[in-house]
Structure formats: C-alpha cells, structure tokens
C-alpha cells in the first residue's frame, strides 16, 4: 500500500532507536533514575557559552535578515570563517567555495553520496560502522560493500581493502574517531591506505573518493592528535557536524569540505549545492550557520567525557570485559560475554541496562555503550553490570 | 566522474536559482537599487514579534535541553499544540501522532514521497507547478505525470485528471494557494476532484494519496477562506512550512499532517518518521520546533503583500499584460507578450528586470513574478516595464 521497501525496513529498523524507545518505556515503568540507558549518542551537555551568546546576538531585534533563504551552499561569511579555521587546523588550504553548509553530517553524507554515485557503484565501509551509512548509500542507488577491521585495533585491514576494490568502487567512508569503537585511525595507517587507493586507481583507471565522517573530531583524549585527512588523501571529502562538539545534535548543522586537490572539484562543489537543494534540505538552518561562524573556537568540555571513559573502562575491564581502549568519541565497544550479542543485550535489559548489539553495526559478538550520560547514572549502573556479569559466570 | 545524472542536471538547473545568481551579478554591476529582482520567493519581511520573543525565551540560559536529539517525529509538546491548531482550523480532528515535524516543506515532500512510492509508481502534477516536485519524485524512483490546468483559472481540469489516472497512479500533488499562479482552488473543485479519485480508486483497485503542499495557506487576500483539504479528501497528507507565513525560509521548519481517515495510517506515520531519519534529515531543527509551538497564532502582515499585489496587478494590466488575479501567495503569473517566454525573460533582463519563464514551471508562454520585495523596488520597476512593453508593441 505504501512503499514496500520502507515498510519492510520498519520491521528491522535501527537497533539504536529501538533501544531509545525501550528506554522511554522502562523509564516510565521504573523511573528514569533506575534505568541505565547507554543506547544513544545524545549529548546531555548544554552548548558552550560562546554558542549561547551567539544565539542571543543573532536573535536580537537589531539583527536583520538572518532567517531568509541564502545560497544553497550557505552564508558566504560563515563559509569564509570556516574555511580559514579548517585551513589553520589541517595545514591544508581550503577555500570558502569548497565548503557547503549542510543539515548535519547525515544530510552532508546523503548529499555527498548523491553527487558522487551512479547506479550500482560501490562504497566500501569498515565494520563496525554506523549502520545508517548503508541506508544512505541505498537511498541513491549505490551498493555498500562492508569489510572487517583488524580485531585487535578496529583499524582498517589494508590487505582486505585492496582485495575489495574493483572497477565499480567509487568511494570509501572512514569515521575516526569511530562510532561505535571510539578508535582513532593512526596517521601511518591512513597514509598507507592512500598508497593502496592510488595503486588501485592507476591499475583500474578509476577515481576513489575518501568520505571522512568526522563528527567526533573534537572529542579526543590523552593529547592524541587527529591526522588531517585533507592532507593525506588526494580525493578527500570531509563531512562534519556540530552535534557532538557543540551539543547541537537536534539543530542539524554541519558541513562538507572538498579537497582543493580533487580533479574538476568546481563541478563537484556545484553538484553538492544542487543536491543539497534538490534532496529537500535546501540549505543548512540559517540562524545556526551564523552561530557556528561565531563559535569556531568553542567546544564542550571534553574532560567531562574523559572522566566517564576512564571510570567505565576501569570498572568494566575489572568485571572481565575485553575492550579496545578508545581515544576519542564517547563510545565503548566491549566484547559480549557470549557469542550472541543480541541475547546478551536482552539479558542486560533485565537489569535495566540498555546497550546496542554489535550486530547493529555489522559486527556481531560486541555491544556499544554511549557514555554521554550523567556520572550519577554511570556510578549507579556498576552494581547492575555486576549482576549481569554474574549471570554469565 | 561524479554522478552523471547530477552533472547533467546541473546544466539545465533551476531557472529560479539561475535568476538568483544573475540578480547578484546585475546588482554588482548596476547597484542593487537599480535591479528589479522578481525572481525568487524569498520573503524580505522579518519574522513577527511572537517568533522573536519565543527565540529569546528558548535561548536564555534558564531553558535546558532544547538542542538535543528528540524523537525523529519531533517534540511531542509541539506536535500536541500543532495538532490542536490544525484541528481547530480545519474542523477535522488530527492527533499529535499524525504529525511529523520536518526540515521545511521540501523535506516534508521528499519524506512523504519516499514513504509512499514504489519504483515507477506515478505522481500527477498540475502545470504550472513548482518545478522541484519533479526532482523530488525522481529522487525516490517515481514517475511524474504532468497535466495542464484550465487556462482561464489555472484550476485542475478534472476530465484530464480522470484520463491520466491508471493502475500505477499513487498520488497527486496539489498546491493552493499556488506557486506560481497565486490561485486558490475552490472547495467545489476539490470536492469534485475527490469524487473522481474515489471513482478511479474503486475502478482500478488502488489507493490515491492527495499530497497538499500548503506553504502559502496563511497568505490569502480579500477574505477568501482556504478549503480544508483534510476535510475533503479521505487520503489527505498535508505538508506545510513556516518559510512564508513566519518569514523563516532559511530555517527549514515545517511539518507533515496525515489524515486520520487513511487506512493503516499508523504504518504510514512510522514510515514517515523512518524516512525523516534515513534520508538524513534526522529531525526538524529543535529550537525552531519550540519557537513554532509558541507562535501558532502569529503570521507576517499579509496586508503588506496585498498592497504589492494590487499595485502590480493594476499597473501591469494597464500596460497590457493578461493576468489571472491571484487570491493568495505572493506571485503573479502573467502571459508573456510573445510566445517564447524564455526570449521574453531575456528581453526583460536588458531593463534589469528579473523574471522566471513559465517553462520553468512546465507552462511555456507565461512568466512568474515574485512580489515579496520592497514597495520601493516595485515602484521603480514600472518605468522599466513600460520600456519592455514598448519593445514588443
């Protein structure tokens, strides 16, 4: 009656959102304070003061013309400031023309894939991966090719990557700091990856675009420096959002940055602005474009997340969980205590602990915990984890 | 190299946007005050005071949690208020569950089409029509079927509609007050249309959904009352935005309202929320959802537009243009003085008048003027129109 494909998808819809609904149900039954909801990456921190000040500045009666249509690519003054900031941070010069303001990173990814892909062309994903990537690729008629990462580090396995590339390969999506593992890809790994890509491009006579999804780029611990993807890959397209770094997940504000080294890049940039319009985004929300332009040096307090990572990592490893220690984002991706991650997550629900099974990220046998939650909830959850572990001993 | 289809589309990209760019070029060359830009529906009026007050309320430090993720369908409290308002205005009861907050009407349309259509299913459009409808339908693999309206009124021709419906017909899009004609479809016409749809549904064993795109529903003149589509069509899906009625075009805030009479409506509503997420919108911008919830009784001053309509209609008919007098929206759709509307629009550019050819709306021989511009510009443009008319006498 409606779209058959969509109705079918509803039945196996995202685990993450299913947990979100289950959390609401449990909270109603047991009280929110007795539910340990690690299911969704919904930052509880309020935006930093720079954001709040900019919001007040642009909503005063003195400021006019903020809420109207602008170019589909976004306000020029904001793109100028952002280009300067990206150039400064990456050491790679990027011009305002190469930036498209978008409706979050999810919008940016859909726009980018639409502009790049022809029917049946392939996009390589490294599992575990953010499961919606698959849907976005399908939206534009492309084909997702999922390959595993190295189990000890969750970093890409370049041998498997090289084997997966064929003449239909159009792009790869990388996501570092990673959701769901929190792992940061090392500079050497990315440089070696570029060598593989260049070799295969030459061999097959194709171009392979590296779409780097970086919403967690500001959430990094222990002084680790994120390698600048724009400096490493010739065909780099960076997509980003301020959902996590400025606590603006519900406002849908992000951008696409196109490397100036991409051949015919000016056509790609036009195609991106066109797709931003015709996919129905039209433009990134105007007020928040202006706010971002004034808040480029701001970030939520990462130390808040570091405290949570350390506390959870310590306690869960003490309880016997195997975890690759994350250096960024606000996720842990421990190994489940039994092979069947879905059964394990169901077991955790009995103790009011909400987790997401690794299967939801194309990586069975693990589970994801999102720790952008209160310290109080984390502390109260440890006894519940102890009971859960006891069940499997 | 990139998507072939998109790169091709770039070449014949929207006339409206092309004019927007040409306007910027002319303004640079001759000074903005000497360019008469009637090309784009970008409301120059600032949002009403209710909106500004709500913006300041929700951006104070006292209000927390506004900027986070919420349900993909939007904030429940906002949907409750909106449902009450729609029920009051239409006389038809609509529940909060049947409302999905969206990234503008463009987002709403893409989400609705994605949720409804299977490959190759058809959507009927009445020309002249907002040209992006065709692209939205193509985005989800559907097929646009464009049929003409009655030339004297620009209202749907029901005989042609009946002939166009076949077993692949899934939906029709109506848009009243209409872009580009400003015409409002009469209640009798819509009721007769529903009779046609019901007859064909029965005959062919199909369901036909009526997608009513209503962003101009608050911009109505001469005390005309807009018929409530939710009351007339069993399978009504209303999409709307606050771009025009509250001067928030750049903020991308709108909604979908699903008739409670639609069979299996709860599945459709879930499908819409799912598509809102997976097409990359995720949710409508959070702050503006809250602002809308507090501004449901507000509207920009329609009288400002009425003055412009009257002034332009009077002067242009005096100069010899044939125009169906619009009762809503902020567009005029006069007949061009020569058959070739594109040539006519090019001729107008010589006098620094920017128009959009009717061809851009699937209706050659006419042109669109958007009069959401300053009175000063309108007044100064009349001598330029006089010169243009003289050229064709």
Automatic annotation (TrEMBL), chains A, B:
PROSITE patterns: AA_TRANSFER_CLASS_1. Residues 36-381 form the Aminotransferase class I/classII large domain. The keyword Transferase applies. It comes from the Bacteria. InterPro entries: Aminotransferase_I/II_large (IPR004839), NHTrfase_class1_PyrdxlP-BS (IPR004838), PyrdxlP-dep_Trfase (IPR015424), PyrdxlP-dep_Trfase_major (IPR015421), PyrdxlP-dep_Trfase_small (IPR015422). Keywords: Aminotransferase, Transferase. Its cofactor is pyridoxal 5'-phosphate. Its EC number is 2.6.1.-. One of its GO terms (molecular function) is pyridoxal phosphate binding. CDD domains: AAT_like. Belongs to the class-I pyridoxal-phosphate-dependent aminotransferase family. This is Aminotransferase. It comes from Clostridium grantii DSM 8605. The lineage of its organism: Bacteria, Bacillati, Bacillota, Clostridia, Eubacteriales.
């Amino acid at each position: 009656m409606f779209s058959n494909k969509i109705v079918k998808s509803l039945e196996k819809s995202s685990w993450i959102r299913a947990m979100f609904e289950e959390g609401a149900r449990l909270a109603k039954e047991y009280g929110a304070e007795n539910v340990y909801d690690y299911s969704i990456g919904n930052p509880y921190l309020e935006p930093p003061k720079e954001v709040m000040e900019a919001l007040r500045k642009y909503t005063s009666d003195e400021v006019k013309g903020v809420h109207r249509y602008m170019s589909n690519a976004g306000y020029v003054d904001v793109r100028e400031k952002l280009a300067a900031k990206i150039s400064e941070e990456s050491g790679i010069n990027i011009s305002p023309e190469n930036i498209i303001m978008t409706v979050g990173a999810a919008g940016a990814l859909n726009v980018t894939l639409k502009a790049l892909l022809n029917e049946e062309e392939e996009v390589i994903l490294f599992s575990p991966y953010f499961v919606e990537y698959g849907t976005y690729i399908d939206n534009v008629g492309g084909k997702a090719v999922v390959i595993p990462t190295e189990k000890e580090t969750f970093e890409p396995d370049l041998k498997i990557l090289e084997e997966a590339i064929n003449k239909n390969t159009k792009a790869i999506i990388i996501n570092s700091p990673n959701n769901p593992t929190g792992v940061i890809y090392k500079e050497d790994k990315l440089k070696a990856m570029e060598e593989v890509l260049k070799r295969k491009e030459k061999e097959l006579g194709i171009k392979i675009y590296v779409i780097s999804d970086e919403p967690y780029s500001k959430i990094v611990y222990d002084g680790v420096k994120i390698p600048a993807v724009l400096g490493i890959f010739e065909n780099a397209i960076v997509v980003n959002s301020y959902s996590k770094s400025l606590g603006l997940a519900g406002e849908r504000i992000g951008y696409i940055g196109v490397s100036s080294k991409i051949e015919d890049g000016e056509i790609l940039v036009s195609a991106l602005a066109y797709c931003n319009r015709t996919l129905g985004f039209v433009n990134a929300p105007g007020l928040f474009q202006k706010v971002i332009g004034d808040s480029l040096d701001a970030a939520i307090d990462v130390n808040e997340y570091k405290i949570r990572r350390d506390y959870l990592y310590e306690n869960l490893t003490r309880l016997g969980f195997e975890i690759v220690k994350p250096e960024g984002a606000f996720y842990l991706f421990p190994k489940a205590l039994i092979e069947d991650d879905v059964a394990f997550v169901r077991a955790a629900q009995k103790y009011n602990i909400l987790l997401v099974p690794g299967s939801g990220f194309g990586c069975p046998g693990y589970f994801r915990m999102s720790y952008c939650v209160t310290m109080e909830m984390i502390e109260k959850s440890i006894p519940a984890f102890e009971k859960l572990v006891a069940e499997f001993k």
